Amino acid sequence: YIHALVRDEHGQKMSKSKGNVVDPLVMTERYGTDAFRFTLTAFAAQGRDIKFSEKRVEGYRHFVNKIWNASRFILMNLEGEEVSPIGENIAHLSLADRWILSRLCGVIEDVISSLDDYRFNDAASSLYQFIWHELCDWYIEMVKPTLYKGDELSKRAAKSTLIHTLDVVLRLLHPFMPFLTEEVWQKLPIEGESIYLEPYPKPSDGILDEKAEEAVKIIMDAVSTIRTIRGELNIQPSLKLSVLINVSGKPKDVLLKHTDYIKKLANVEKLEIGEDIKKVKGAAFMSTAYMSIYVPLEGVLDIDTEIKRLEKELKKRQESIKIIQNKLANESFITKAPPKVVEKERKRLEELSTEAERFKDNIERLSQWKDY
């Protein structure tokens, strides 16, 4: 395996004369060795030169912090107690427990396959997606009510799942982030001298459960759609919503059985699920392939006021777009300005155009919701 050439963020070859050389010692001092190592690994696609960006190193430092904070949360909830092996808690695993253990099986397979094929960037990407999004953003949030208010058997199963998952993830991540993983692993209630001496995970360290994955996918679709409505309307995350979901068949059965997950993850106070749910006037609505979700806006949002706010924001973007378009149409600016400045203006124009389109879509959607 021969890694690609590392260039600067503009694709230029690094040289002292250009002053664009990156000192690894400076990067490790500023962002930490693990963040720097993981950045280079994430960039290392075969056959493609690496455009090194310090912002990406900073971004992966946030990833390191995410792992550290998630580990602290898990260890704090153990309160010094002994954790029984996952095999002793199979009968008491919740849907969330079974889902994360099944996804753990999948990510182990992905990482091993990528490493075997020297696709180090794909291995890093699989770990990043699993740890940040599935473990931290979804599973830990799903399991919090059990840790705080669940019965003893459910708590024991959740804690066993958390420790088992963290142990396996740390061992998977160790070749990429050796220092953080060793530091955290030493704090786990697991016998062993060093994570370096532990066997690398294999798929059997997870527990495949396709039914659990399918059920959680349905729950995630519902929660994500509600969050999208909340985000597009700029509704405060802390404000509890009323939600109606028109759905049938197996998805309906899954959602009815697990309303607690939806209420917790989407911050919903009143939830109605059924096959004959009708839209109420003035409700925001969105549909997936198999369900329609309605969020009544009365007492939550004044649609007329929100439309005016969006129109004001749209006007600002359109004025900025016109200024940049005039600048880029000026031949003198294009020929005399440094290439970096021209490229920056083009990128800004693209960003503003995307924002303007989003505002237009939201105004159109709100107008439909108001009249329907």
Question: What would you note in describing this structure?
Answer:
With 372 residues, the chain is of the alpha/beta class. The protein has 3 domains: 6-208, Isoleucyl-tRNA Synthetase, Domain 1, CATH 1.10.730.10; 212-296, 2-Layer Sandwich (hypothetical protein PF0899 fold), CATH 3.30.2320; 303-371, Valyl-tRNA synthetase, C-terminal domain (Helix Hairpins). The chain has helices spanning 24-31, 33-43, 54-76, 95-116, 120-149, 152-173, 178-185, 210-232, 249-257, 259-266, 303-328, 331-336, 339-371, and strands spanning 6-7, 50-51, 241-247, 268-274, 283-287, 291-296. The chain has a 4-stranded mixed β-sheet with strand order 4-3-6-5. Strand 5 (283-287) and strand 6 form a beta hairpin. Helix 6 runs antiparallel to helix 7 (178-185). The longest helix is centred in the last third of the chain and has 33 residues, at 339-371. The mean pLDDT is 91.
Write the CATH homologous superfamily of the largest domain: Isoleucyl-tRNA Synthetase, Domain 1
CATH architecture label name of the largest domain: Orthogonal Bundle
Tally of strands:
6
* Poorly predicted sequence stretches spanning 5 or more consecutive residues: none
Q: What fraction strand?
A: 5-15%
| Shape field | flat
Rg measurement, Å: 25 Å
Number of domains: 3
Mean pLDDT: 91
| Strand line-up in the sheet with most strands | 4-3-6-5
User: Could you give the order of the helices and strands?
Assistant: EHHEHHHHHHEHHEEEHHH
Q: Return the CATH class of the largest domain.
A: Mainly Alpha
CATH names the topology of the largest domain as Isoleucyl-tRNA Synthetase, Domain 1
Distance between the termini: 60 Å
Put simply, the count of helices is: 13
